[in-house]
Amino acid sequence: MARKPSMTKPAGSRVSLAILPTGVAGLDSVLGGGLPKLSFNLIAGAPGAGKTTLAMQLIFANATAKRPGLYLTLLGEPSLKMLRYQQQFDFFDMSRVGSEVHFLNLSEQVLAGDLDQVFLQIVAEVARIKPGIVVIDSFRTLVRTIAQLEAPALLENFVQRLALRLTTSDITSFLIGEYDEQELRNPIFTVADGILWLFQAVDRNSVVRKLQVMKMRGMALMPGLHTVRLTSRGVQVFPRLTEREERPQGKVGVRLSTGVAGLDAMMGGGIPVGSSMVLAGPTGTGKTTFATMFIAEGLRAGEKCVIAVFEEHPEEYLKRANAFGVDLTAAIRNNKLRVIYLRPLDLSVDEALEEIRESARSIGATRVVIDSTSGFEMALAPTFREDFRESLYRLVGTLTGLGVTILLTVEVVERNQGLQFTNDRVSFLTDVIVIQRYVELDGELRKVLAVVKMRGSAHSSEFRSYEITPTGVLLRGSLKNYSGVLSGQPTRQIPRIPGPYGLTEQEGRALEVILRMGVASAEAIEQGSGLSSSDLAGILDRLIELGYVGRKGARYEGVARPGIS
Question: Whole-model pTM?
Fold first, then answer.
């Protein structure tokens, strides 16, 4: 309802709103700071959405001995039954009932259909108790009763009288009702200062509670749908964060080591502080090992870290790290590391984000590992998977906005066309991308990696092979003499043979076969070049004499020399 400007302020001055905390985690942020005092509000939604619990939580958060809370039940569940269930929540304090929080049932007056009597009873209780906050549950039952009497005008008059009386009595009030969107023309929606709509989203076997603040006069609301979860603490709201927080200053140009010898040099000096890195590869390429090295390096440098695990239990994760000589248990004990396991049913992105962000803030973490985004997606309720790309954007933006450097592991698939990212196409989200893959070299399965993206920085474009050893990751040499590495079946390139020593056509054919095969027997060279064994013997002796070929027993191999490229 409209407020009269304060007579103590000059004409035209802005009247500030007094704000009440809701006592509901996350809801104040969604409301833009809290709940306007003296407002007349509606909590609507289907049965089981959490309306009563939310209202009860609001009352216990704001009721005092001087300005108690009054909870009026109409034709809903009896007060004793409601109290029996509400006592299971942590916010409910039975010692405050009867002094700071009062309950009254008006079922008889409602069943009689006498709105005047209902109104007078409410006014009398308000005058007697002098509450600061009033809840009427369930107002929808009153509406249905009056509808049966075919007196819509009577109901509209009752709502307006009730709203006027409550707001002018220095009371913040809530009406609870089971409405659907087709009833938005109901007069109560026009009269209400605020409308909080709770509902349950059903997707296959998954059910997720959500909240939308459809209206709150005088407040800068956070738009959109926000996840709601009911726990032993009561209702918890997970705001749909859309704004990227201001990135801390003074870190420009500073880089962090990955903990993998050689990889920092490929990246031009390491990962820029406050940036995000994706490590993408198929299963078994060592993504978790790289992530462990990244965390271990941070701990060695005195940093604090967070690991969010989605695929394996933390105990298994720690055991795996210990196998590489990295003892994360001591860091956890000293509050330098948090390992959080996020695999509940029907997980939402905002819940995961809040858990990770709060862990990072509480210990002052500067490094966060999310292992893996593929497991993260699988842990989400189906209704959230449709917006997974947007959700990742918000998660990465929020954490890097805190100055945290993030490493995300991503499971990718290999197809005939080469390495492919998942359908979520997370590449645009991050500052750094390192890809891993399997290739076949000389009849063996090898692991290789490359830096494919380094925002705002030069980086190596080479592929390097690597091994997962008992002590971590060991980078090997560059695959400079191979093409088609991304296809998984690289081909060795035949180098040019410049220099003062000229080779005959037959000698060049023999050398080409040796360089292609790497190491070859005389029989294999003979077969590959088409030369006879008698001619080949002399050719091999000459290639050895010129220094192009070396001999190891009965096998021949090309020799790296200046001038061969």
Answer: 0.66
What does the alpha-carbon distance between residue 374 and residue 412 come to, in Å, rounded to a whole number?
A: 9
CB 126, CB 118: distance < 8 Å: no
* Coil, helix or strand at residue 460: coil
Choose among 36, 35, 74, 81: nearest CA to 54.
35
Tokens linked to 67: 């300005």
Long-range contacts of 108-116 (CB under 8 A, 24+ apart): 110/74, 110/75, 110/141, 110/142, 110/145, 111/75, 111/145, 113/145, 113/146, 113/149, 115/142, 115/146, 115/154, 115/155, 115/158
In which residue are the tokens 């029907």 written?
346
What would the two tokens of residue 177 be? 């009702």
Place of tokens 């509400």: 86
**E strands along 243-354, which residues?**
255-256, 271-272, 276-281, 305-309, 337-341
Neighbour count for residue 354 (Cβ, 10 Å): 20
d(CA 401, CA 214): 29
Q: Which residue has the tokens 């249905």?
A: 144
Q: Which two tokens stand for residue 19?
A: 């704000």
How far is 208 from 199, CA to CA, in rounded Å? 8
Core vs surface per residue 466-496: b (16+ CB within 10 A) or e: bebeeebbebeeebebbeebbbbebebeebe
> Which range is least confidently modeled, 85-99, 396-410, 414-428, 523-537?
414-428
Query: How far is it, in rounded angstroms, from Cα 200 to Cα 373?
Result: 26
How many residues comprise the chain?
Answer: 565
Closest CA to 409 of 296, 282, 509: 282
Residue pair 218/35 in contact by the 8 Å Cβ criterion: no
In this predicted model, what pLDDT tens digit does every residue of 288-336 receive, in sequence order?
899 999 999 999 999 999 998 887 787 888 888 887 778 888 899 999 9
Most confident of 141-155, 494-508, 532-546: 532-546
Residue 518: how many other CB atoms lie within 10 Å = 14
137-147 pLDDT per residue, tens? 876 656 555 55
The crossing angle, in degrees rounded to 10, of helices 79-86 and 51-62 is 80
Tell how strand 472-478 and strand 464-469 pair up.
antiparallel
Neighbours of 383 (CB within 10 A): 19
